[in-house]
Amino acid sequence: MPDSGTLSATLEAVSLGTTPSRLEALEAKLDALEKLADELRKRQPATPAERRQIAKTIAAIENAISVVEAQIAAEKTPVLGAPGKEDVDALLKAIRESEDAIAQNAAVNQMVRAANALIGALG
């Protein structure tokens, strides 16, 4: 098992601030955690107390691995950007045209109602 100095150096080396990108840092952290868990699994503890402690440590590392895997998945999830100027302009134009069509339709409906009223009054 790595000593605490080696472990802290490993964790420091994979900290998010010392790698080119967050995704690369997370992948390096995941790799380090997996290697640490593998090393602990290879260890042959001498006492039942050591076995329990190693099992607890492995469980904690596996939980950390799950968290890092979720963070990696989140980093890889595409994020929709804001629409471009052309998209905004096209959307505004479509909205204006729809509003104009609705207004024209309302005006036609009003004329039809007036015509029906006039026909009803004459008939």
Quick description:
This protein has helices at residues 4-13, 22-42, 48-76, 85-122. It is mainly α and 123 residues long. The radius of gyration is 34 Å and the shape is rod-shaped.
Task: Kindly describe this structure.
This protein has 123 residues and is mainly alpha-helical. It is 80% helix and 0% strand. It has 4 helices and no strands. It is rod-shaped, with a radius of gyration of 34 Å. The termini are far apart. The relative contact order is 0.07.
Helix-strand blueprint:
Blueprint: H1 4-13, H2 22-42, H3 48-76, H4 85-122
Helix pairs in contact: 2-3
**How many angstroms separate the termini?**
103 Å
Based on Cα principal axes, name the global outline: rod-shaped
What's the helix-strand series?
A: HHHH
Low-confidence stretches: 1-5
Q: What is the total domain count?
A: 2
Largest sheet: none
- Helical element count? 4
Radius of gyration: 34 Å
The overall pLDDT average reads 83
How many DSSP-defined strands? Answer: 0
What class do helices, strands and sheet pairing give? mainly alpha
What portion of residues belong to β-strands? under 5%
In helices, the fraction of residues equals over 70%
Tags for this model:
single chain, 123 residues, 2 domains, 4 helices, rod-shaped
